[in-house]
Design goal:
The chain is about 100% helix and about 0% strand. By secondary structure, it is an all-alpha fold. The chain has one helix and no strands.
Length: about 110
């Protein structure tokens, strides 16, 4: 009988240890599951943020391209107007020179009479 009682005690201890170990494993499983769900939520939030940032990057890129096109257009207009101004100044100088020559001729002609 003692031998059976000792065996029963031993089995009960092993059973208790097994139950304790099982509970510990179950707690760890819950922790890991919870952490996995949190990681999944965080990943979803991060992916949403990445998507929004990619949209912003595309928008900024498009705006930069439009600004560059506008700058090129304005530069082209400026160069054209500068060229026209240079031509007009040159024509004005030529006209002024011609006028001075004509005035000089007119004075010379008046002086001869």
């Amino acid at each position: 009988i003692r031998e059976l009682e000792n065996e029963l005690d031993s089995e009960q201890r092993r059973n208790g240890e097994s139950v304790k170990s099982q509970r510990k494993i179950e707690r760890r499983l819950k922790e890991v599951s919870y952490q996995g769900e949190e990681d999944k939520k965080n990943l979803t939030r991060i992916q949403d943020l990445v998507d929004k940032l990619q949209i912003k990057v595309k928008t900024y890129k498009r705006q930069a391209e439009e600004a560059e096109e506008q700058a090129n257009t304005n530069l082209s207009k400026y160069r054209k107007l500068q060229h026209e101004l240079d031509d007009a100044e040159e024509r004005a100088e030529m006209a002024e020179s011609q006028l001075n020559k004509m005035r000089s001729k007119a004075r010379d002609t008046k002086g001869e009479k």
